## 1
Amino acid sequence: MTTRPPLATEKLSMLIDGRSVAAQSGDFFESFDPFTGKAWALVPRAGVADVDAAVHAAATAFRGEWRTMTASARGQIMMRFADLVAEEAEKLAVLETRDNGKLINEMRMQCKYIPQWFRFFGGLADKIEGRVIPIDKPGVFNYTRREPLGVVAAITPWNSPLMLATWKLAPALAAGNTIVWKPSEFSSVSALFFGLLFEKAGFPKGVVNIVTGFGNEIGDCLVTHPDVAKVAFTGGDATGRRVYQSAAGGLKKVTLELGGKSANIVFADAKMEAAIPGLVSGIFAATGQTCIAGSRALVQRSVYDEVTEKLVAFAKTARIGDPLDPETQVGPITTLPQRAKVLDYIGVANAEGAAQLLGGRIPDDASIADGWFVEPTIFGNVKQSMRIAQEEVFGPVLSVIPFEDEDEAVAIANDTIYGLAAGMWTQDLGRAIRLPERLEAGSVWVNMYRATSYLSPFGGYKQSGIGRENGQTAIYEYLQEKSIWIDAGNSIPAPFVQR
Ligand code: TXE
């Protein structure tokens, strides 16, 4: 086992109005290390009063210095923040791995990459332009401004804590909004360290506030708070629906990113040396705990036996172990309830008659017995009617589904309520161009899988979500357009007549 560094501070603090604070109740809750199964940090347990204080601070900051600061100055603060995150990337990555059990290699990659979002959107801050409209009324000058919305509530899950928050915070801040961020109760530690960097970078107090606590205790009061203008949410679809309904009461703007059941399609003409690791990395690299997991492998029937055999052989070699060890390839599941859910789905798949080709159990290895592991699991000959083909498991469970031809591959790929992502493996250029258009998914990868960037839009078709994150257009999710009319002709208005 690698050394597990102790946490520097015994009890962590939230960030409200530029101050490091405990919950007003003084309550804390334990955060667990999924590899040791033991509590390793104490996180403030915010209540409604803390949410109220955070929203109040954000609303006040929105009307203060942040509002009058030039967009270039705003962008420069974001650039400074990016530099500070880059300096702390290694520390943040270790905190994330301890808190959510995902591989250190993956969290390192994410924490080193996060500064690019703040640089990119910081650079966009002073490129938010309005328009001059050649209006159809003589003597009238009409132009538009794009203005921020106000207080944005960012609600994030446990699987990629800082990265998924960054996808919301960077465009929202660049657009001039202020933030109340509630990270997942299962992975709040890195957020609280991230929070220490905002003031250092020069953000005015109250521009970014972080409250930690349980979704079922404070989520609803944050979403429905009258001073919150927009909710940006990533999480499960059941919670997403609830957030959407609560936000509707106040007609708030929302973006939702709600996971998927993504198809990773292998055609007989694929380069198999690439396709097989592509299937494996699509599902097992993050122990299946990623919204874009390629949890359905669609394999052309003529190569079905060959692919499943190679897939099982390859997945069998995956090293299960301590996520802090860079050699580990499959880490634990982040939470105990999530492991129970994954094991339950494995039971359902067996009961429905899917052929279990690999895994399916808690690993039988005493050296990792304290961790919340599930073996990489592969089911063959899965049918569309099975729950394992339709529902998001969010664990290391792959369903392999055979198909005959292109049309059937598209039909199966599109036959779920979700539409977040899809992958395809082929050497046929025509097919590589033809098929992405037919796939109902917000991201399609050809001969690659699981790539995202600050430069390219990301989001869901169908019930995988609403709105887009990343890429230039994401900033418009945090802006509203105002139309300004000026009579430049000095005319005297005719009363009772619309102009
Ligand atoms: O997520 P939740 P959970 C899926 C995955 C998983 C399932 C449940 O299938 O098994 O969701 O995971 C906050 N109002 N994904 O329960 O509940 C909560 O505190 C406002 C997919 O951990 O969606 C956390 O901060 N907020 C996903 C955030 O919502 C509420 C990533 C997400 O938690 C709330 C994670 C409420 N009423 C899980 N209740 C993806 N898209 O990548 C909870 N929250």
## 2
Amino acid sequence: MKKVIGLTGGIACGKTTVSNILKKLGAFIIDADKISREVVKKGSPALREIASEFGDNYLLTNGELNRKKMGELVFSDSEALTKLNKITHPKIVAKIQNEIKWSKENSNYHVIIVDAALLIENNLTELVDEVWLVTASEHIQINRIMKRDSITEQEAKLRIDSQMTVEEKRKFACNIIDNSASLERLNKIVKSLWQEFK
Ligand code: ATP
């Protein structure tokens, strides 16, 4: 029986790192972030809808989405975020469903991972059999964000505070992967989870 796991976690907790470990162990990875960028690629139906809803000034001169400008708008305007999600969400869900279907029917992979930062927030849990949550203490999360994105502690904290709390996310999770320690430790945790699961 092929199983579909939704992998999620707060900003910079280590989802991508866990996903890479699982890929090496033999899982098929569906990257929701990559899919969400694909659905709004230059010339796509979603991008045309975005331009007609928000205006052509949300496109760059080369016809691509101005992600920075769009991001700034939806970060500060929840109505705009709802409108944007209405355009993109169904297309993202359909693509993820297609990839799940394809990997179930046409591949030898037994474990399919849907790697999605907003798995819970965007109701993508309906697409998966169970949820694995990657966590890290807030202090470590802040340090990793500051280092990776070259931003201040205050900005890092703002990004964390704009997300659903880890306590809320825990309610959906079947497994919690604590990534507050070293990469070596994380590798061990994920490997033992994989062994148990297979
Ligand atoms: P986001 O959702 O914000 O894209 P993410 O949850 O996918 O992030 P990663 O990109 O995997 O997180 O990790 C965030 C940063 O922290 C990366 O620079 C990564 O190399 C680093 N990192 C992850 N785990 C560890 C660890 N155990 N020790 C040290 N650094 C780590």
